[in-house]
């Protein structure tokens, strides 16, 4: 789908069809609300949020939006994520279903707290 390398999340989102753009914007807004101090970036050619280290990533694919709350975000929500296809560090939210925004928000807040704790130990 994506041809050019985006340097901002706005550029990344603009490369997709309108229906996918809406989902990507929902994802972005949910993450921003859950982690208002996080900075936006593009890492590994994907939208990323940084707060005291890498927080979460997301990306659009042909049939799903991938969400990456690595390294530990998935494990903390295994039961709630059981309805979705998952990889080692990824979750696939199908494009033909509503995004689980409340779950995504809780996962982002979990990762914020995790990064805060990690930064205090340094």
TrEMBL record:
It comes from the Bacteria. Pfam families: DUF1801. Residues 21-112 form the YdhG-like domain. This is YdhG-like domain-containing protein. The lineage of its organism: Bacteria, Pseudomonadati, Bacteroidota, Cytophagia, Cytophagales.
């Amino acid at each position: 789908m994506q041809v050019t390398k985006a340097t901002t999340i706005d550029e990344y989102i603009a490369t997709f069809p309108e229906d996918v753009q809406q989902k990507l914007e929902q994802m972005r807004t949910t993450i921003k609300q859950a982690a208002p101090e996080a900075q936006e970036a593009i890492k590994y050619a994907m939208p990323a949020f940084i707060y005291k280290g890498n927080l979460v990533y997301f990306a659009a694919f042909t049939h799903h939006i991938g969400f990456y709350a690595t390294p530990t975000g998935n494990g903390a929500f295994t039961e709630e994520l059981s309805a979705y296809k998952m990889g080692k560090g990824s979750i696939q939210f199908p494009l033909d279903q509503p995004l689980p925004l409340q779950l995504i928000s809780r996962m982002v807040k979990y990762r914020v707290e995790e990064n805060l704790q990690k930064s205090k130990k340094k």
